[in-house]
Amino acid sequence: MSLALPAALAIVLYLAAAGALARPLLSGRKPLSGTALSMATVAVLLHIGVLLGMHRGALDLHFFAALSLVACVVAAMTLLMNMSRPVAGLGVIVFPLTALLLAVDSFLAPPTHPMPMDWQIKLHVTVALLAFGVLSIAAVLAILLAVQERALRRSNFGPWLRALPPLTMTEGLLFRLIHAGFTLLTLTLVTGIVFVHNLFGQNLLQKTVLSVIAWLVFGALLWGRWKHGWRGRRAVNLTLTGMAVLVLAFFGSKFVLEMIMHRPM
Fold first, then answer.
1. Do 92 and 55 contact (CB within 8 A), yes or no?
2. Confidence class of residue 17 from pLDDT cuts 50, 70 and 90?
3. What digits encode the pLDDT tens for the residues 135-183?
4. Contacts of 218 (CB under 8 A, 6+ apart)
């Protein structure tokens, strides 16, 4: 069966869910959270089906396939987050980006063949995906936090600001996610040290160094929060810095090797 139709349907549902979540942000009207979450749930399930079909049920870590996989993980986590603590801004940002990455992987990217992996490497990759997903959501929350603080300083109390959760709730959720992401990132590094060999031969040295730098940034933020009560702009800047380094670690070297040098990774 062709995967074009389920991929297109997932893209439409992601965009529709984002629109439903954006409704109170744009107009102050009653939110359509239930409808949005239902559409997003179907979109994520379709996305998973497309990934399994396109990549033969295997973990495909080629550039565009990996982007689509990570986007699916982040969308699923965003969905779970909105079920327990409604944060509409997450879906408004995450779901359209997920739709874009799914569209690129489904309709524009060249076909790829998943490389075989031992269970140890699959475990390492799975933990890494979870770490990246959690910290990605933390980065989106950091952006929302910065926007809220800027609007409050300027006394810009539009309907979109009233639709967002209280500033203290956003900040508390941000640090809980960073704690969880930091723990998962630590496990990622540990499993990488234990299971991954020959870093030089596998073009993984730069990825490891950047991952360690990101780990140090998030660790410094958590230490500063515990020791000195860091918050606000400093927390936002460190969160976004750590996430930027982590994006480079996960996709920077992969992009250079696969897209520019045309070497498998």
1. no
2. very high
3. 999 999 999 888 888 877 776 666 666 656 777 888 888 999 999 999 9
4. 135, 178, 181, 182, 185, 238, 239, 242
Q: Which two tokens stand for residue 14?
A: 């992601």
Domain residue ranges in the chain? 1-115, 117-265
Q: How many residues does this entry show for the chain?
A: 265
Phi-psi region of 15 (alpha: psi -120 to 50; beta: other; left: phi over 0): alpha
* Nearest in space to 134 (alpha carbons), one of 164, 165, 174: 174
- Copy the structure tokens of residue 101: 């990455």
**Is 99 a residue whose pLDDT tops 70?**
yes
CA neighbours closer than 13 Å in the CB half-sphere of residue 120: 8
How many C-beta neighbours within 10 Å does residue 106 have? 21
With CA atoms as reference, report the closest residue to 144 among 188, 177, 100. 177
Q: Distance between CA 2 and CA 139 in Å, rounded? A: 35
Q: Determine the 3-state secondary structure of 78 from DSSP.
A: helix
CA dist., res. 12 & res. 109, Å (int): 19
- How far, in Å, CA of 208 to CA of 63, rounded? 17
CB neighbours of residue 167 within 10 Å: 17
Q: Is 34 exposed, middle or buried (0-12, 13-18, 19+ CB in 10 A)?
A: exposed
∠ Cα 249 76 88 (to 5°): 100
Q: Are 106 and 69 in contact (CB under 8 A)?
A: no
- Is residue 177 a contact partner of residue 135, using CB atoms and an 8 Å limit? yes
CA 24 from chain centre, in angstroms, equals 23
In whole angstroms, give the CA distance from residue 47 to residue 60. 14
As a whole number of angstroms, the distance between CA 161 and CA 149 comes to 10
